[in-house]
Amino acid sequence: MSTDTASRTAGRTATDGVATASAAEAGSGAATAPEPSAAPGAASSGPRRPRIVGRAPARPAPAAAFHSVTAATAALLGLVAIGAAIHEPVLIPPLAASAALVHCAPTLPLAQPRSVVVGHLLGAAAGYAVAATAGGSTWAAAIAAGVALALTTLARTPHSPACATAVVIVLQSPAPGRFVPLLLGATVLLVLTAFTASRIRRGAPRYPAYWW
Q1: Does residue 60 carry a pLDDT above 50?
Q2: What DSSP character marks residue 40?
Q3: Which of 36, 54, 107, 157 could form a disulfide with 119 if both were Cys (CB 3.0 to 4.6 A apart)?
Q4: Per-residue confidence (pLDDT) for residue 30, from 0 to 100
């Protein structure tokens, strides 16, 4: 082997050795280098869970809520005043529920005049019919509520307070000659007050959505 060939071979060997040593040192340094610490306050758990959001309707504007509540309260006070004038209890719990519907949810089918007036009359009919056949027990009151619900559904006059009217009749046994006319007049008054209130405030939903 010539002298030049031997020199080149020795040079390559030395170069490969230096490269190997450098790679080994780099690998050793990478293995022993400390890992960066987590930032203070960082979450140690898995991915953040999404916040639970309800599907309830948005809160109404203060002016709209005040208008609805005031109108409903005024209608109920009117029923109390009529009852005091004629010495008859006109305000009953189902009518308070009806007032809340027509003033706070005026676009729902349950709040339309057909449902309010006819629904309560059907509830009264169910209450008197069940009371005449099954007496005035709480069992009979529950049956009367179911019958009222069936009648209002078939008549296309959905109105949940009408079921409560049937319960009131079974449990309290009011005289139909006085109770039914007062009930009819009270439901008409609720409809008319809701109609008027929806025209007073600008931008309020128009009531009713339909009359019949």
Answers
A1: yes
A2: T
A3: 157
A4: 40
What is the four-CA torsion angle of 116, 122, 127, 128, rounded to 10 degrees? Answer: 130
Q: Which two tokens stand for residue 147?
A: 């019958």
Amino acid at 65: A
pTM of the model: 0.74
Q: Which amino acid is at 68?
A: S
Helix-, strand-, coil-residue percentages of the chain, each rounded to 5: 70, 0, 30
Q: What is the pLDDT of residue 122?
A: 98
Q: How far is CA 39 from CA 21, 32, 93, in A?
A: 36, 21, 61
Q: Identity (one letter) of the amino acid at 132? A: A
Given a cut of 70, whether residue 65 has pLDDT beyond it is yes
CB 170 within 8 A of CB 48: no
SS (H, E, C) 140-166: HHHHHHHHHHHHHHHCCCCCCHHHHHH
Q: 202: pLDDT confidence band, cut at 50, 70 and 90?
A: confident
Residues composing the chain:
212
Cβ atoms 176, 129 nearer than 8 A: no
